[in-house]
Protein: Aminopeptidase YsdC
Organism: Rubritalea halochordaticola
Amino acid sequence: MKDKAVSLLKDLTEAHSVPGYEDEVRAIFVNELEDVRGELSTDKMGGVYFESGSGPRVLLAGHMDEIGFRVQNITPDGFIKFVPVGGWWSHTLLSQRVEVLNRDGEKILGVISSKPPHFLPESERTKVLDVSALFIDIGAESRAEVEDDFKIKLGDPIAPVSEFTEMKKHGHYLAKAFDNRVGMACAIQAAQEIVAEGHPNTLIAAGTVQEEVGLRGAKAAAHKVKPDVAIVLEGPPADDTPGFPKSECQGSLGGGVQIRLQDPSAIMNPRLVDFVCKVAEENGIQYQVTVRSSGGTDAGSFNIANEGIPSIVLGTPARYIHSHNAMINLHDYLEMVKLSKAVVKALDEKAVSALTEYL
C-alpha cells in the first residue's frame, strides 16, 4: 500500500491542474481506474467518475484542482501580469517558480518577481506586496515574443512548480497541491482496493472540479451521480506548528486521519459522524476529530444538494497548504485510505437508510 501511495502522490502533486484546467489529474484518474471493474464517465464541467456495484450509492470524492493563476496581461517588454485562481497568501509568492501552460500544451517556466527592494522606499520594504504589483518573468523581451515564440495568450493557466520530495524525517513528504491531491489519491487507491475486496453498495469514486473557487464542481457531481452518502476526501490545514496552542490542536502530522464535524460550509450529518468514528475504532484506525470556524470543502455543496446528502469530510492534515511547499506524514494518508475503505464496506442498505430516518 505504501509504495502505491507514494507513486500515486508523486504523479498527482506534480500534475498541472488549476481550476477549469484539471485535465492532467483527470487523465491520471482514468488511467488508474480504466482497467478496474466498473464504468467511467464525466460531467459537462469536466468532473470524472468511476462507478461499480449495486445498492445504496456511496460517493468517495476528491477535488482535482489546485490553487493557481491565469495570465491577465502581457507587458510591452514581455512580463506577464497574472490573477490568482483560488486563495493565495501574498507572503508566499515572491521568487517562486511557476509554469504557464500554453495553448500548444507546453509548460513555460517562469519566476514570480517584483520591483527589487533595493529600489523601494523604506516605508514600502516592510509591506506585503499585493498580487497586482507582481509579475512573472519567463525571460522574454517583448509581448510579441511571449505571444509568437512562447505561444502564451491571455487566460492561459499557471501552476506552481514544486517537486514531490521525501524528507529526512521518516514518512514526511514535501510537495505542492497536497490540497487536494491527497484526496484524489485516496479516491483512486481506495476504489481500486474496495472493488477487488467487495462492497455492499454502489461505489462512486469521483474527481470534482473548481472546488478552490467556490465548491462549484460538486454541485454538478451531486446532480449527476445522486449519491445517498458523500464522503469528501481532503488535504486540510494542519494546526500543529508554532502559533497554535498544543491543547487546541485538531490536525497534527502523525495524528491519523482527520474527521471533520463542522466548518462554515457544512454541518456534517451527526449520525454519519458517529458511524464513521465507530468504524475507525472497531478497525483500530487512528483518527483526530476537528470542528473548524473557517474554511470549507465540497461537503458544503453536497450536504444541501438534491434532497440533502449525508456528508462527512476525511482528511490528511498538511502543513503550509496553499503554497509551493506543503508537508504531510504518509501515515495519516494511509489511515485515511483505511478508513475510507472500512466505511464504504460498512455502508450497506440498513446503515445508509438509518442516516436519514427521521420519522
User: Anything to note?
Assistant: The chain has ten helices and 18 strands. The chain has a mean pLDDT of 96.
